[in-house]
Backbone:
């Protein structure tokens, strides 16, 4: 389904209304209200974000989209803060302190005692334990079910009102285990007494869409498929230094890339992610009030093959499909500046190159070789037996639907180029765009033949969600392709059991090599995620960790304020 494109004039008018909402609210408790000279200090001004799709569900157990994550990470006090410099590190937030047992099997966390939900109830260890109980419940069907695989049944436990104890079946990489321990929490006084039937409907629970909040921000407004708005949480009980300095953050939902870009250039929005390379040079030269930020190699694009379908079941056929596509040519056409600089690099795995030690630099990407691709396919029985220009086998043409999400110009353009490359070797790819939420649900349900999509990569290594075999006991909703290789499974289990990340490097490189050999994806590229932001904003956090890192620190100097209401 193609989403309706909102005309720019309607977007501008909608923004004028958005920026008036909640303007009379009081500043958060503990926030400075006067500067020298008598001007109001904080909060002031608004950040308007052009975003391509709507919220899904605001529940840390079952959320699925990047937009959900952006909101949840700001309306809920994070368990930990994270930093990244070639590897991930964690610092205290809700988790005030922690200790590990010598054998690496027990992780004990002390929570802050002053963080409350906006109904006045304190966040306690019971809330953390409940979250993992729900993740473990198969009736909930949480996409984070893998987070509990390494935990002893019944853990984590509340071992005090503000103490949580995690126990693991095996020692493993502590960075990975800590990241999984920071999943989130739910108010037990709201979700603690759900029946089995109610748990299966967790996504539709009223407080999964209008949640109690404990972080610096709250969801002020959500108009479906139009906008969602954050404003400071006036009941936030965390440190004064973490109270927001902006009045509100408005996410305006604009599915069409060109409309988002025009909104940024015309000043109707302040921030836009995913700027196409061909537009960067124009922005830099014609719009000096817009700064371009790079988030590094956090996002990748890939072409997923549904290996449960007969035409994609053979790894050699999948290798031939990859060789038929001129990936370097697509990168030069779609991800390069006017000076020829390519803002991307070929991908060979789902491990980001930002993880400097672990990424498999030794793997050489398959070359573009259409003739060799045709020869491989012929050896597998795919020939043009009837002379219609389309390969066939057993009377069936090599024809499939290549789907991608609507509103992503780069992927739409890439799919057209891929279609042409495949046509040259006799394969008929029919193109389809689907509304984003529908598209990603179809991936999880494996309701696709081939799909052009992407990942925002984890900054620690745990390939199990995407590449481990699915079993009756353990579902893998993010293993979209249905990939299963017992040798890869054994290596993943071995790598995750190592406490020292340096010792696991060789294993993770071997995992990447084996997956690349089997080509369940045509791995395309790691792309520099380019973001445009109005220059009036200071102390911004646009980095490999998030589009909106430490949003509470973003501010606008008093003499540069644009929105005063």
Residues:
């Amino acid at each position: 389904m193609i989403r309706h494109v909102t005309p720019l004039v309607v977007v501008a008018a909608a923004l004028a209304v958005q920026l008036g909402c909640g303007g009379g609210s009081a500043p958060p408790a503990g926030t400075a209200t006067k500067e020298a000279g008598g001007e109001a200090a904080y909060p002031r001004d608004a950040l308007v974000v052009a975003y391509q799709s709507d919220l899904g569900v605001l529940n840390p157990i079952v959320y699925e989209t990047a937009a959900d994550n952006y909101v949840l990470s700001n309306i809920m006090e994070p368990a930990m803060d994270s930093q990244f410099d070639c590897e991930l590190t964690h610092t205290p937030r809700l988790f005030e302190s922690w200790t590990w047992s010598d054998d690496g099997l027990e992780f004990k966390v002390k929570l802050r005692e002053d963080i409350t939900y906006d109904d006045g109830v304190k966040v306690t260890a019971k809330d953390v334990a409940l979250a993992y109980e729900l993740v473990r419940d198969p009736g909930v069907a949480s996409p984070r079910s893998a987070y509990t695989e390494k935990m002893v049944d019944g853990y984590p436990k509340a071992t005090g009102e503000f103490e949580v104890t995690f126990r693991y079946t095996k020692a493993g990489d502590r960075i990975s285990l800590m990241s999984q321990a920071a999943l989130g929490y739910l108010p037990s006084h709201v979700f603690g007494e759900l029946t089995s039937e109610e748990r299966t409907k967790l996504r539709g629970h009223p407080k999964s869409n209008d949640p109690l909040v404990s972080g610096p921000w709250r969801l002020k407004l959500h108009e479906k498929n139009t906008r969602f708005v954050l404003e400071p949480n006036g009941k936030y009980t965390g440190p004064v230094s973490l109270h927001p300095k902006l009045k509100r953050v408005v996410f305006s939902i604009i599915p069409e890339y060109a409309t988002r870009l025009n909104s940024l250039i015309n000043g109707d929005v302040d921030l836009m992610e995913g700027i196409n390379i061909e537009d960067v040079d124009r922005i830099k030269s014609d719009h000096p009030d817009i700064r371009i930020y790079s988030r590094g190699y956090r996002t990748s694009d890939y072409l997923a093959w549904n290996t449960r379908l007969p035409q994609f079941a053979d790894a050699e056929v999948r290798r031939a499909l990859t060789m038929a596509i001129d990936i370097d040519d697509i990168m030069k056409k779609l991800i390069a500046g006017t000076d020829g600089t390519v803002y991307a690099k070929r991908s060979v795995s789902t491990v980001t190159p930002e993880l400097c030690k672990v990424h498999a630099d030794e793997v050489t990407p398959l070359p573009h070789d259409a003739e060799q691709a045709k020869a491989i396919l012929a050896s597998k029985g795919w020939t043009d037996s009837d002379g219609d220009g389309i390969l066939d086998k057993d009377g069936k043409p090599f024809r499939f639907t290549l789907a991608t999400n609507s509103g992503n110009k780069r992927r739409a353009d890439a799919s057209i180029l891929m279609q042409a490359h495949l046509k040259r070797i006799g394969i008929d790819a029919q193109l389809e765009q689907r509304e984003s939420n529908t598209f990603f649900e179809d991936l999880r349900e494996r309701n696709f033949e081939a799909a052009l999509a992407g990942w925002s990569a984890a900054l620690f290594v745990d390939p199990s969600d995407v590449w481990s075999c699915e079993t009756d006991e353990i579902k893998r909703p993010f293993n979209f392709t249905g990939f299963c290789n017992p040798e890869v499974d054994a290596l993943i289990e071995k790598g995750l059991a190592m406490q020292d990340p340096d010792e696991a490097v060789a294993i993770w490189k071997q995992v990447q090599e084996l997956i690349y050999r089997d080509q369940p994806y045509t791995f395309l590229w790691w792309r520099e995620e380019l973001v445009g932001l109005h220059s009036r904003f200071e102390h911004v956090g646009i980095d490999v960790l998030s589009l909106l890192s430490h949003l509470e620190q973003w501010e606008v100097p008093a003499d540069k304020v644009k929105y005063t209401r």
Summary: Residues 1-75+215-295+529-565 form a domain with the D-Maltodextrin-Binding Protein; domain 2 fold (CATH 3.40.190.10). The longest strand covers residues 217-223. The longest helix spans residues 501-518. The chain has three domains: 1-75+215-295+529-565, 77-211, 299-527.
